[in-house]
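Per reviewer request, we include the raw input and output of the structure prediction for the construct analysed in the revised manuscript.
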Amino acid sequence: MRSFGVSAALLGGVFGLAALPAAAQQTKVTNQGITPTEIVLGTHQDLSGPIKSWGVPVTNGMKMAVDEINAAGGINGRKLKLIVEDVGYDPKRAVLATQKLVEKDKIFAMLAPLGSPTVLAAQDILLEGGIPQLFPVTSAEFTYKMDPKNPQDRLKFNNVPPYTESVRAGARHLMQEKGSKKPCVIYQDDEFGKNVLDGFNQAVADAKLTAASVTSYKRGASDFSSQVAKMKSDGCDLVVLGTIVRETVGVIAEGRKIGFAPIYFGSTAANVVEVPALGKEVTEGFYAVGAMEIPYRDTSTGKAKEWAEAYYKLYNMEPNTQSALGYNDVMTFAHYARLAGKDLTGAKFLAAMESGDVFQDIFNSPPVKFSPTEHLSATVYLLQQIKDGRWIVLKRDLKN
């Protein structure tokens, strides 16, 4: 009965392709990286740069999943081979690494590449080469939006909450709940930050308010004194942070130094255990939107608990959102690759991805499902807050 369900789901994807516009049916998709015994995957991460607190655990989680899948016999008899490139959150290095992965290593798919500017810089290399770009660790909308006139856009899939929509939903909720009159934003001056800015602007419009202060900083900055002083002078009562880890703590700490204590709210990029670990009491009360509940070892249950303990034993590191995300991305790929069948091809894999078949992870996250017209699976978000050094879920059904 199970095999019939899988076949039906895959046929649904195939019939869905027939219903697509003619241009979409011309999508070029690779068959490279598939042998009778192996599927080659690539990823580019930051293992040595400013957001290695994301790149290292994401990579650990991915490797853990690959080892688990291979130990169980692989995917329809094929073992996974994961090739990791460290690009240090540098777009130029991401381009070079992607060219290597595509042309030399002959990857079948790019899985969970990290960072908005780095993913954006290298994305066209993948699409033009017919390489699927799967589940980038960035919520920027260019990672899932499809242009009907560009059939190669069909190779893009994402499963994390988009920055714009999730920030809009969370910021709007807090503006209304807290009675904000002077909302403000500080954002990293790149693709990531601009997506957060868009979400902020939409939330301000929803709340029928006017932004009291809009300021930015260059990627890699460590001094936020002028920006924070401006926000204080402008009377900001709620500040949306288009920041990642170190910058999140830096902005809030600078505010505390000068007696500026508005409500702070961040995107999914700041919803990680490193923020309270680094900021300690400085970040108490900080809000952020997230994709999943933080998998703390001592509070997780069931399979998530088993995974958390295994991760800690393997890496001598506490599990976190990033490591769970990396693990999930490999498991999601495996789910749809299995669905595509033993005679795996790029076309059959795309059909499986778009079949509407649901993948459910072990962390009780919202289910993953894609269709021929929807390549983003994350539309429900969690509002979380740091209390006593830990992220606590306040609202599970936050929607745009």
